[in-house]
Amino acid sequence: MIGVASVNLAVVRTDDWTGRHGRSGIDKRPADGPVLFTETGAQGDVVCDTRHHGTWYQAAYAFDVDELAFWSAELGKELVPGNAGENLTLTGADTSSALVGERWAIGDAVLRVTGPRTPCRVFAGFWDVPGLVKRFTRHGRTGAYLAVERPGEISPGDRVRLLTQPDHGVAVAEVFALTTCGRTDLAEHVAGCLPDLPEEWRATVGAKVAASRASA
To answer: How far apart are CA 141 and CA 156, in angstroms?
Structure first.
């Protein structure tokens, strides 16, 4: 069974690693009680870099307890829920294998998987790991961004129920592999999820598919 280990909200940081904005909400900590999720995100969360985060299709971000454990072992440091910048830390889940467009019911809310997270220098700075972006990219298990289709409260311990799943079979990790890791062998397969991608990401992924077809 997939469940919610914790629901996490930002503590704004102003460290040197926060970059040109000088502020970041990547440091998320478990909330004490239920959190309302709406089309604009988790109530009480903070988004500082609105150019790259905080759109309707990035209303929430989910990451796995098992992936936190993997990186804890890999880096020799303890990572706890919220440390990947995720709003939802899930148990029994493989969010990177979730299909683009599949819909989840959690608590009172309904959320839809929109695509992968792309690691950045702020992420590497927060973990204080030089070269993390390349390592995280090579590992390819990014977690999943979510849109909120029906607002509602989500609490730790809530079950995650799969409501619907598209027929294309394209996983979040496969989109990331094409767009960021150069896996052009996945282009035709990933093309199947284009209608389920947000418009901005559809254009980017569509361009990768077109380039692969042109070079074939």
So the answer is: 23
Pairing of strands 60-64, 88-91: parallel
Q: What is the pLDDT of residues 12-51, one digit of tens each?
A: 999 999 988 899 999 999 999 999 999 999 999 998 777 7
Percent of the chain as helix, strand, coil, to the nearest 5: 35, 25, 40
Instruction: List the strands of the sheet with 88-91, edge to edge.
Output: 28-30, 3-10, 88-91, 60-64, 144-150, 109-116, 103-106, 160-164
Distance (Å, whole) CA 14 – CA 98: 33
Rounded Cα–Cα distance for residues 112 and 102 (Å):
6
Tokens representing 173? 């990790």
Do the bridges between strand 160-164 and strand 103-106 make them parallel or antiparallel, or are there none, so unpaired?
antiparallel
